[in-house]
Specification:
Length: 67
């Protein structure tokens, strides 16, 4: 009568898989949050350019392929 009731057997293989999936999940969440923040920053910069009527000469972009 030395058994512990309710104790689950050790499963090192699936435990490792769950740990790896958890790391991947949190990595994806962090990357998503950083991407959203960068998009918000780009939007804010674009709105500032529009509100302050800042224009930029993009003609040099058109000449890149012609060289």
């Amino acid at each position: 009568m030395n058994q512990q009731v309710g104790r689950l057997p050790e499963t090192p293989g699936p435990d490792l898989a769950v740990k790896i999936m958890s790391i991947i999940l949190w990595t994806m969440i962090v990357i998503s949050i950083v991407t959203i923040c960068l998009m918000m920053l780009a939007t804010i910069i674009a709105v500032v350019f529009v509100i302050l009527d800042i224009s930029y000469d993009w003609s040099w972009m058109l000449s890149i392929g012609k060289t």
